Protein 1
Amino acid sequence: MGRIKIIGTGSYVPEKILTNYDLEKMVDTSDEWIVTRTGIKERRIASPDEATSDMIIEASKKALENAGIKAQDIDLIIVATVTPDNLFPSTACWVQKALGLKDIPALDISAACPGFLYALILAESLILSKKNKRVLVAGAEMLSKITNWEDRSTCVLFGDGAGVAILEEGDDESGILSSYWAADGSLGDLLIQPAGGSRMPATYETVEKKLHTVHMKGNEVFKHAVKKMGEAALKALSKAGLTGEDIDIFIPHQANIRIIEATCERLKVPKEKVYINIHKYGNVSAATIPIALDELNREGKLKKGDVILMDSFGAGFTWSAVVMRW
Ligand code: UT7
């Protein structure tokens, strides 16, 4: 039985760039504060008529081309997002429609920032168990549409974008070597979109109080992120019989440059092996890792045999790491 490998990647970010200087005109903040506290310089913002599935469709076309296959070769679509087009039907079903596919399963999963890694783990086990052959996995977010643009503690952090990977079983040493995933629902209130679901359906009051936007206790989340990003990575590496020193490319979730630095230190991964794009996109939640993967792939920075560690933490809380050989 071969390992499950990525045969193609694609990504899409909206054209509009919102810089820290633009934000200085909107809330009481400064480029200096944002750069030193987070590492972010700018982020991409979708247009009012754009939805999450539109971004995934663009990224999917590129991933299909990169894999050298047709949409009809896909037999399952998994979309990881917390900013779906609608609560239902799933965003994956809109993607299926746009790709002209019929009679294949399509579903969304909600696991916040590690959503793409959760989806990879699911896709891997479905292919290994022979339920599916070729899976399109997307991580996509349109966080600008659930951002409170008057709250400086959150509005400087997030951006929009989508990344896609296509998976199938390989016949050599390449592919997923190990993975780890976990969650702790007892801490869910620390990072939450409070309204819009069955707990607090939409009312005039929920809209007035901006309860449909991201609410985060930033410094609490920060502490847990540092701890769990390290833990997830070490657990996945140890399952593969590897240490941080064996990593060729580390793709961490890009929520805060200080979290990335602390994780690198714990894993003993040198700076030159870490891929960082937080300055360009901010935190794009589930889209962060697949966008980074696609950028590395297109820049020719992924060489056959490279050991790649992907590692993420987010709302739930959820955390996950995947180790793969390119
Ligand atoms: O992707 C899912 C996981 N998410 C994360 O991992 C995010 C984790 N959290 C973080 O990255 C950081 O906690 C933040 C970047 C959100 C905040 O940084 P911090 O160093 O934890 O700052 P803080 O929240 O403790 O606030 C420090 C000060 C406060 O002022 P006082 O009370 O000391 O006077 C804030 O009001 O910074 C102030 N502040 C700002 N000042 C200028 C908060 N946001 C801003 C801002 N501009 N945008």
Note: The first helix runs from residue 20 to 24.
Protein 2
Amino acid sequence: MIENLEQQNLRSRGQTDFWIREQCQELILSDRQIEELMRRMILEINRGLRKETHPAADVKCFITYVQDLPNGKEKGKFLALDLGGTNFRVLLIHLKDENDFEMLSKIYAIPQSIMLGSGEQLFDHIAECLANFVKEHSVYDERLPLGFTFSFPLTQLGLTKGILARWTKGFNCSGVVGEDVVQLLKDAIARRGDVSITVMAILNDSTGTLMSCAHSNHNCRIGVIIGTGSNACYVEKVENCELFDGYMDPTKQHVLINTEWGAFGDNGALDFVRTEYDREIDHFSINPGRQIQEKMISGMYMGELARLAIVKFTKAGLLFGGVGSDILFKRGQFFTKYVSEIESDKPGTYNYCRDVLDELGLEHATDEDCANVRYICECVSSRAAHLVSAGIAALINKMDEKSVTVGVDGSVYRFHPKFHDLMTQKIRQFVKPGISFDLMLSEDGSGRGAALVAAVACREPH
Ligand code: BGC
């Protein structure tokens, strides 16, 4: 039988879809793989908590020394610093009532030269922004308590002492790893000599998220970040924390743990689900071999993962008639927000997708290309959502409470149209029968959470 041109096109179109779907299979996690991921995650968490296995564990489970959740009565004015997300911020927070607070904040750019410069430059810059802020808001002589949200792995030796274990995301300042970052901040403030500050606590953004959600929802026991980086914090029994250092108050049986789960896989535990795209991202990153799970999940990498798959299929002639563009072929030029935008199109329509492809110089894309690009984005983002879900389900099962609220923050969770639903569905599938949970969007965990940790710390006789 002789095919006419249209039939031939249809046939080859079907084949292109088939090949792309076939090759994207490796990005889809099966339920068995998720079960195995949960098992390995728990193993690593327990290794992180135990003294003997902690040094070699990849999920370090750092003790935060935060032992009190907010009771809703925290009041007063606090300063907060937030370093480690997309921006650096200084905040002035006035906690009034459980559901009433005021927050003033200012975003300051951290140029790449500082992100990759010396620690002294970084902390001088932070101190300068802080000094300008307190002067602008006329609170420089109030000596307000300050909470420092520092969203990198810290070995904490108390609420106000944290030794940087490693840099992550885009940071790599010299002379900071192995140092107490609270001291570095205090030194920089002292070098200026124009402001006086009382640092009440240093905390992680995942801890801030947990605290911020727990303030209005007393059921919150887990805080998760899916933003530039990824991490989780949860409530653990002190008796399981062999590395708890110092005085243990017998009336306090719990402590928050900063899991630093972004490093899950650094020992090879994720190799069974990693793809060539993951290996390439890692290879060209500033921290090869590190933060392996984070590189499969978070906003700093998700767009690039999609780009690598799109490039591969373009070069194989399966997309855009085999014709790419300079922007498409350049590293880092397919932003994670594109993934969210492309997946926001109504089924069968490609308005956002075409905007993105136009920006990339791919005006020649057909509707079929748009559908396939969307499919690739869905595979990458669903995998991220399922990896996060495996971690959350593992934590919920480990905690074994009847009902748990999980506070979640970060740009990926906030802006991706399906992340929340994908997570809810997957977590439900894997939590033990009889346990109920819900996911709650956090209200500025890094800012309000820092004020709350500082407020709770002010209650204590340190
Ligand atoms: C850091 C964590 C942080 C997470 C989210 C990771 O790269 O190691 O400390 O919580 O990013 O910001």
Note: The CA atoms of residues 268 and 292 lie 9 Å apart.
